[in-house]
Amino acid sequence: MLGTLLNLSVFVPQASADRLKDIASLQGVQSNQLVGVGLVTGLDGTGDQTTQAPFTAESFRAYLNQFGIPLPQGQNFQLRNVAVVSVQAELPAFTKPGQTIDVTVSSLANAGSLRGGTLERTFLQGVDGEVYAIAQGNLIVGGLGVGAADGSSITINVPSVGRIPGGATAVQEVVTAFGYGDSIVFNLKRADFTTAKRVSQAINEFLGEGSANALDAVSIEVSAPMDMQTRVAFVSELENLQVEQGAEVARVIVNSRTGTIVIGEQVRVSPAAVTHGSLTVTISESLQVSQPNAL
Fold this sequence. Notes:
Strand content: 25-35%
Number of domains: 3
Shape: flat
Strand order of the largest sheet: 3-4-5-10-7-6
């Protein structure tokens, strides 16, 4: 038993290897942010106050005009069951037309709550202005807001933001650079020259010398086959290679608001003394072996 305790006392955890797919991503293959502006209808009196947000009435008028229902210009509508919202979604790489993605809906004006609302058809655009998905559906709102007749109210979480799981349908695929060129580039999620070198070495050991080249602390260029099907299998083999990452920078993070201190594994504490006011902290080193008590 004593021998076991002594062995445990000097045990030092060894660095473990990670799959390449967990520490790096392919350049040109990333998610794309989509955004749109739409209307949420069916709210129980918690929609926008059009006197303070006149663009809600204009958006509602434009929406009905799409269906051949004209409304008189200049008329102020009290639409407490309608809210103008921002609709955002993340379109993963290689998403095909017909596949669905989740959307987040948030109020753009002064709606009190989106609970119970339905998002009307909204076109979601990319940074190039092209429409890549269409969103609509019933909202799921985690927050809660309740008001009483005397004017008092209580709010839990944020009722002006909701989600629609699978609420958008892709209508267009985003073109990626995956199938072009005679090489691919892996970008590390954490810049580190040591890790970049080790990734390059691991790939060269697997494919042969000269197949991979570390361009900098982030990017590793790898020669790749031109055939698309062969390239898919090629990347599948590479992303499962085991690579040991370089050590993290020694770092200490102090959160004065919560009183939390996080110390990285590379931090080494040397003998020192720190004095602040009436508080004194002394760090000393002792070479004596601590003998545990008998069991």
